[in-house]
Amino acid sequence: MGTVLTLVCVLTFLHYVGAQMRGPVLSLYAAAHGATATGVGLIMGAHMAAAAIGSIPLGRVSDVWGRRRLMLGGMAVGVVTSLLLPFVEDELALMAIYGLAGLGVAAFTPSALSLVGDAAAPGRIGHAYAWYSTAHYGAIGVGPFLGGLVAEWFGYRAAFVVSAIGIAIALAVGRALPSRSAGSVSSSGATFADIRSNASVWAGWIVSVSGLLIQGVVFPFFPLLGQEQGLGPAAIGLVLLVLGLANTAARIPAGWLVDRSGVLRMRSVASL
User: Fold this and answer.
1) Does residue 190 register a pLDDT over 80?
2) Between 125-154 and 233-249, two packed helices, what is the crossing angle to 10 degrees?
3) Whole-number pLDDT of residue 183
4) Given pLDDT bands bounded at 50, 70 and 90, which one contains residue 95?
5) CB of 179 within 8 A of CB of 71?
6) Contact 164/86 with Cβ under 8 angstroms?
7) Which residues, at least 6 apart from 132, have a Cβ–Cβ distance to it below 8 Å?
8) For 264, which DSSP code?
């Protein structure tokens, strides 16, 4: 891997370990302060909705202002929101803060993905994205486990503070990202209309949404189910760690197969 790609993967892992420490802990924290299952769903839904709605405009902003600014800004939002969570207990307040955290994710993720595409060597884009998704989903496994451990040993509020520290470490490392002017960001010349009419893109969107629907059910509500069954935060985090590591295991071989099969190259040629 090149230097930029390695740095993006390290940042992605550090950032998402810190960010994902909050997920299962927040479900338990909200329930402990009177939130119903519906309330927990709304809190988590606000986060994901903000991340989804903000991704397209903030992705465009990263094209104009540069990737580095958006990634650092997204991590800064993550630090602030993690530090705010211990001070509130009300459902609406938790929803507002965690929704704001979703905007931080929307600032970070499209910019990180774009940097991966910018840095990928010709014919190795599948391999590059496989390394990125390995870092991302590995962190989705490790983060809840660490969050569960901290919550069990020191309490829910301590887990949010440690989450902030983890994201702050990523923010400090992120200062090593290369500064690039907006005009230096690569562009393929494709428009949204071109993408909208591409059947392969629609297929990818549909498959991604279908998979994420499952994730959207498991991560908010499994902690509540585990707690009902007598599991502590650390045990709940361990289950999510196993889930995340299993999800991660196939990323590198899958990327290698994509590059070997030439699927991405064939799709690129077909779209011209």
Assistant:
1) no
2) 170
3) 38
4) very high
5) no
6) no
7) 5, 8, 9, 12, 112, 113, 116
8) H
- 199-234 pLDDT, tens per residue? 766 676 676 666 666 666 677 777 888 888 888 888
Which has more pLDDT, 260 or 80?
Answer: 80
Contacts of 188-193 with CB under 8 Å at 24 or more apart are: 190/271
Nearest to 106 by CA among 54, 184, 38: 54
56, 70, 104, 183, 187 from 96: Cα distances, Å: 20, 21, 13, 35, 35
Burial (Cβ within 10 Å: 0-12, 13-18, ≥19) of residue 75: buried
What is the residue type of 251?
A: R
pLDDT one-digit tens code per residue, 106-156: 999 999 988 888 777 776 777 788 888 888 988 988 999 999 999 999 999
The residue type found at 212 is L
pTM: 0.79
Task: Look at residues 241, 262, 267, 254 and name the one whose alpha carbon lies nearest to residue 131.
Answer: 254
The DSSP secondary structure of 129-178, one letter per residue, reads: HHHHHHHHHHHHHHHHHHHHHHHHHH-HHHHHHHHHHHHHHHHHHHTTSP
**Residue 272 pLDDT grade (very low, low, confident, very high; cuts 50, 70, 90):** very low
Q: Which residues contact 131 (CB under 8 A, 6 or more apart)?
A: 1, 5, 9, 251, 252, 255
Q: How far apart are CA 59 and CA 112, in angstroms?
A: 10
Q: Which of 109, 111, 133 is nearest to 255 (CA)?
A: 133
